[in-house]
Amino acid sequence: MIFLLSYTNSAATHLVSLSKFPILRIPQLSTMSTNFFKSHAFAGNPIKLRTPKPTDPFSPPSALKTLKNLLLGNTHEPHSPNFKILPFRKGRPLAGSVRGSNEPNWHLGWLSFGDCKAFLENSEVNLSEDTLVYLGSDSEGDGAYVVYWGIDVTEAGNGLVKELGSKQFCFVELRTLMVATDWENASSMGQLAIAGHARSLLEWHTVSRFCGFCGGKNILIDAGRRKQCSNELCKKKIYPRVDPVVIMLVIDKENDRALLSRQSRFVPRMWSCLAGFMEEKVWRRL
Ligand SMILES: [Zn+2]
Questions:
Q1: Domain that residue 21 falls in
Q2: 208 CA from centroid of ligand 1 (Å)
Q3: I need a labelling partner for 128 at 20 to 30 A (CA). Which of 106, 135, 156, 253 fits?
Q4: CA dihedral in degrees (113, 106, 51, 225; nearest 10)?
Q5: pLDDT tens digits, residue range 103-132?
Q6: Beta strands in 142-221 (DSSP E)
Q7: Boundaries of each NADH pyrophosphatase-like N-terminal domain copy (predicted)?
């Protein structure tokens, strides 16, 4: 049973049955119970769970050294980690759909170093140690490791979009991927978390180009995991920003219902808990 509580041009609020609302069903979830809400999108990034030693070949300093060698045109050394690069455009990660699957499914558009270099060759974006940001590392088995990088290609223009489109890739809004993800699939949720972390980190790099203390140019340190002012008299260090936010779900346990809302800009099938900058805003909407 659905109760329309209010409606404006920008938002609507609904009371929905937790077990009987078909639109809210996530792939492979036949019912929506309170257990569903124990999953957290964009959390539990699997490639940030380990902290490598500086001497490990997949650590930020070692990976940066390997990256510099590749940029100079040197061949990939046998024991160097494999590189995978995820491009973002206007905050959207590159993604592709899974072929041969009837389910709405997707995968991130990880590119090899060579492919990324080829794609960006005729664009306005330089593939360099100043544009690639270290995201994390993971084991590939048999002692082999992969290092993940992110890059913002927003300035590359539509030519790159068309070229990647011919390879069945496109840049997709994170919330769209979230809706298309099977929340019971740990691997898919892990990919979603990696993409969320990468977007946050790249956005921080975009808005922190200059020092807030002296106006000097900030440069990447530790493969992009932090930055430092290039002014010798300042040298202010800055770290990725963490923005605390609050979101809450109003549950009517007795009647097996929850209160959700949606905005007109949301993609189809997307509903949200009541969210606000402060809890007071949520109380006002109630
Ligand atoms: Zn400074």
A1: 3-285
A2: 11
A3: 106
A4: 60
A5: 658 899 999 999 999 999 878 788 888 899
A6: 144-152, 170-171, 218-221
A7: 114-204
The rounded distance, in Å, linking the Cα atoms of 32 and 191 is: 23
Whether the predicted pLDDT of 169 surpasses 70: yes
Instruction: Average the pLDDT over each of 69-78, 99-108, 139-148, 214-223 and give the range with the smallest value.
Output: 99-108
CA 6 remoteness from chain centre: 32
H and E: helices and strands count for the chain: 6, 15
- Give the mean model confidence (pLDDT) for residues 138-161: 89
CA of 202 to the centre of ligand 1 (A): 20
Task: Determine the distance separating the centroid of ligand 1 and the alpha carbon of 247, expressed in angstroms.
Answer: 35
Q: How far, in Å, from the CA of 234 to the mean position of ligand 1?
A: 5
Alpha-carbon distance of 47 to 52, in angstroms, equals 11
Distance, CA 89 to ligand 1 centroid (Å)? 28
Count of C-beta atoms within a 10 Å radius of residue 209: 10
**176 closest CA partner among 116, 255, 274, 95:** 95
pLDDT for 274 equals 74
- Predicted confidence (pLDDT) per residue in 226-259, tens digit: 999 999 999 999 999 877 666 777 888 888 888 8
> Ligand 1 centre from 215 Cα, in Å?
6
User: What is the distance in A from the centroid of ligand 1 to the CA of 243?
Assistant: 22
For residue 237, report the distance from its CA to the centre of ligand 1, in Å. Answer: 8
Angle of CA points 243, 244, 250, to nearest 5°: 135
Average of per-residue pLDDT across 136-156: 90
Tens digit of pLDDT for each residue in 51-106?
888 888 899 999 999 999 999 988 767 678 899 999 999 999 999 987 766 665 88
Measure 158 CA to ligand 1 centroid, in angstroms.
35
